[in-house]
Amino acid sequence: MDDSANWWRDAVVYEVYVRSFADADGDGTGDLAGLRTRLGYLAELGVDAVWTTPWYRSPMVDGGYDVEDHRSVDPLFGTDDDAVALITEAHRLGLRVVIDVVPNHTSDRHRWFRAALAAGPGSPERARYHFRPGRGAHGERPPNDWRSVFGGPAWTRVADGEWYLHLFAPEQPDLDWGHAEVRADFEDVLRFWFARGVDGVRIDVAHGLLKDPAFPDLGADDEEIVRPPDRSRHPHWDRDGVHDIYRSWRQVAGEFGPDRVFVAEAWVDRPDRLARYVRPDELHTAFNFDFLRCAWDPGALREVIDRTLEALHAVGAPATWVLSNHDVVRHVTRFGRGDGEEPDLALGTRRARAALLLMLALPGGAYLYQGEELGLAEVEDLPEDVLADPTWERSGRTRRGRDGCRVPLPWSGTAPPFGFTGDGTPTWLPQPARWRTLTAEAQADDPGSMLRLYRAALAARRDHPALGDGTMTWSPAPEGVLSFTREPGFGCVVNLTPEPWELPGDARVLLASGPLEAGRVPPDTAVWLTGS
């Protein structure tokens, strides 16, 4: 494990969606003991840290992002001792641990919310949340027109006639971050887990904690968290006051040493807005969703890279790069979609391999999502009766939600559950039989597999002195080819044109995302060059 206090500036972090990673107790759902048994796989893969989705006590309405108690492990995932054992074993293997904290909302089963419902209108207990009277002669209409990210109104009425705000599911009431007790309690949650050895905290919906106290109408028909509007004056996204919260959190992390860090999930509309979250006295890093959302287009990619580096370097922060996570369609499918409805997965896989080398060559750190190292595509044919994402029901069964990227991983064997659970119990979401060629076991000894490419790229990135944090310089190249260098002695070329591109005669290839053609880089292929 890198002992540097600045380990986070160029770390490669692997996201584990705990419910779908590995199952140790045989119930078909992933758990902390299962994750612990697979930490060796992650160490061999070559990542620096593991980020886990919430493992806290929860009714699981939103996959654990509806937290009932941030200080207790949900029995579905194990015990409090399992969490400590996981952290200890990860550290033994040289892996840091980043956990998820969910500050925007709680579960409706949280003790605070149950107390609020019992106490009634105007009570101190309700002041921790956003309770408001309704509009209309009898308060029968919501306080404003805000919409839930999952679909439908963002307000639910309770028996006494008041309404409460929930930007996500009704079972996830939003906290009022103007309340001193809310702020103090979350600072205590941070101390609780830092004291147990976690190295970092990912902040869910970091841009959403504060709301305009006037609760003005938004005038929008829908709300989409991953495609933000201009939020500079938005009544509940990316409000300036959130930065005071994170200045306090930075001080809390500092109590435990300079190597404890934060990463923000902040869906904002411009890189300069993102940079505000990672100023020197605030958070350490933030997810770069502009890169994740970017089309496989050379001009668009270059613009995103340039704007990101310019904005973040201006505040002394490193960039982070990410291609997939538990909230979006897997990038093999996105890159293969093209103009049609049916994705070309062979095309998507070629582009995903090239995108990996591009991402890992860029200055800063990177985040990987479980299963991308296996080349997994989105599972778009899950039966409707197994869909668990609240988006499905909240949208009137018009949006399938995020379950397609959350299907349990295939580890071994030739039929489901592919080693996910030891005794053959069916997984909580069904795995497609076509994954038999994509298991970790099947790919481990195949030199042309996605898994072997990830291992080779991560090893080369760790070994090459030019890679990680730092700067880059674009090189002259034909239109449609991205080419840049990093010192000392490294180059990256990505061919996004429909024709092969010939490498210079003196080029020495360190790694390629696919086979080269007599010194030429085929379409949708990337190469790393050494001695450039």
Question: Can you describe what's shown?
Answer:
The chain is of the alpha/beta class. It is 26% helix and 14% strand. Strand 14 (473-474) and strand 15 (481-486) form a beta hairpin. Helix 11 packs parallel to helix 14. The longest helix has 17 residues, at 345-361. It is globular and about 80 Å long.
Largest sheet: 8 strands, parallel
Q: Tally of extended strands? A: 20
Tell me, briefly, the overall form.
Answer: globular
Please report which band the strand proportion falls in: under 5%, 5-15%, 15-25%, 25-35%, 35-45% or over 45%.
Answer: 5-15%
State the end-to-end CA separation.
Answer: 30 Å
Oligomer: single chain
Poorly predicted ranges: none
Helix/strand class:
alpha/beta
In DSSP terms (H or I, runs of 4 or more residues), the helix count works out at 14
- Helical fraction equals 25-40%
| Rg on CA atoms, Å | 23 Å
Question: What is the residue-averaged pLDDT?
Answer: 95
The side-by-side strand order for the widest beta sheet comes to 11-10-9-5-2-1-13-12
Short description:
The protein has helices at residues 32-37, 39-45, 80-92, 111-119, 180-195, 242-254, 271-275, 289-293, 298-313, 331-337, 345-361, 390-394, 440-444, 450-463, and strands at 12-16, 49-52, 56-57, 69-73, 96-101, 131-132, 155-157, 163-165, 200-203, 261-264, 285-286, 320-322, 365-369, 473-474, 481-486, 490-495, 501-502, 508-512, 520-521, 525-530. The chain is an alpha/beta fold and 532 residues long. Helix 5 (180-195) packs parallel to helix 6, helix 10 (331-337) packs across helix 11 (345-361) and helix 11 (345-361) packs parallel to helix 14 (450-463).
